[in-house]
Amino acid sequence: MKGVKAKDQYSPGLDGVVAAETKISFLDTVQSEIVIQGYDLIKLSKSKGYLDMIHLLLEEKLPDPPEKEALEQRLKAEYDIPADLEELFALLPENTHPMDGLRTGISALSGYDSVLDERSLPVNKNRAYQLLGKVPNIAANSYRVIQRMEPVRPDESLSYSANFFYMITGRAPSPLEEKIFDRSLVLYSEHEMPNSTFTARVIASTQSDLYGALTGAAASLKGSLHGGANEAVMYMLHEAGSAERFEEMLAAKLDKKEKIMGFGHRVYMKKMDPRALMMKEALKELCDMKGDYTLLDMCEAGERVMEREKGLYPNLDYYAAPVYWMLGIPIPLYTPIFFSARTVGLCAHVIEQHAHNRIFRPRVHYTGGRRALHETTGEL
After folding, report:
1. Annotated catalytic, 226?
2. What is the pLDDT of residue 1?
3. From the candidates 182, 273, 317, 349, which is the catalytic residue?
4. What's the pLDDT score for residue 6?
5. In the Cβ-directed half-sphere of 366, how many Cα atoms lie within 13 Å?
6. pLDDT < 50 regions, the chain
7. pLDDT of residue 4
8. Alpha-carbon span 172 to 223, nearest angstrom
9. What's the pLDDT score for residue 221?
10. Is 265 a catalytic residue?
11. What is the rounded distance in angstroms from the CA atom of residue 320 to the CA atom of residue 275?
12. Residue 334 Cα distances to 64, 98, 218, 268, 367, angstroms
């Protein structure tokens, strides 16, 4: 726009606008890397687990074996949630979305923080570890209690990820299931500045607390254009039931110009999300284990249709959904699992925002006119 300064130019959806400086993560589209504290996330996911990611994101380095063991023990000490929270969940209607139950639980935790108004680095880190211990419990058992099922108590004999899986499904995972579930948490752990992370940083910039920032992030992540896409993908696959029918379904949706969940990404526009490729490999492993390739065949058929018709490629949600289904995880818990995994990234961003803060206060591109008000009658 002629005469408009670059800083005043309007970018719908803030597309391409740099909103923060961070040393936490970066999506390098030139090198096709998701950089987490200097490391390639995909390479990390092949050799490191979710506990390594927690230490990397909060302590800025990968842990050695004693540090990793100490971290797991620290998290296990935080597994239990206040009994009052289970009573609160029982008061919620049975049709409450699991993300709303999770959001409510995180918000309620703030009342148990005796130093809620402190924002120092040690206090904020301690909060982050407490939340990382409790959020999987809240995610799994808010759902169970709302559905009028008995909660599943944490099992400290299991690893962090295996315990999370156990609270969700009521059974301990096999070694392969544990490996794949843990890898999904790694891949979901941090991803630069999506809507939910931006929401958390905006809230934190007012000097609001970590619980409030995560509560807002949970509300953001619930949306079907963000975390809720994984649920939508699984419902589509269920409705289709076969590769042929899935191709027909996608073609019909495209004819109606409907958005197809699980495809496309604001950053990965001309290639597959590298995290999706990792989950596709995990799906193949589960199919090999069970001798059933129906979901893999369907997903690959969908890939071909969307690449041919729209030039779009799968994002992480597209392959995470069938992986979670084959792990026996209820569909309504897909997005809460996403949020639980992303909690560490969100905490890292809130801590960074508090440490180097400036309140977010953008401007607008005004498209309205001006009106005159009659001074005596008040009429236009």
Report:
1. yes
2. 37
3. 317
4. 53
5. 4
6. 1-5
7. 42
8. 30
9. 95
10. yes
11. 9
12. 31, 9, 13, 22, 39
pTM of model > 0.70: yes
Q: Which of 272, 269, 268, 294 is nearest to 283 (CA)?
A: 294
Which residue is associated with the tokens 């002629």?
2
- Sign, Cα dihedral of 311, 45, 243, 324: negative
Name residues whose C-beta falls within 8 Å of residue 294's C-beta, 6 or more positions apart in sequence.
242, 243
Q: From residue 245, how far is each of 112, 120, 255, 308 by CA, in Å?
A: 51, 55, 15, 17
Which of 226, 273, 349, 354 is the catalytic position? 226
Q: Is 354 a catalytic site residue?
A: no
Burial tier of 2 (Cβ tally within 10 Å: 0-12, 13-18, 19+): exposed
Helices (H), the chain: 41-47, 50-59, 65-76, 83-91, 98-109, 121-146, 160-169, 175-188, 195-204, 210-221, 229-240, 243-255, 274-290, 294-310, 316-326, 334-355
What does the pLDDT read at residue 15? 85
> CA angle 218-221-224, nearest 5°?
140
What integer pLDDT is reported at residue 72 of this predicted model? 98
Look at residue 272 in the predicted model and tell me its pLDDT.
86
Query: If you search the block for the tokens 């597959």, which residue do you land on?
Result: 272
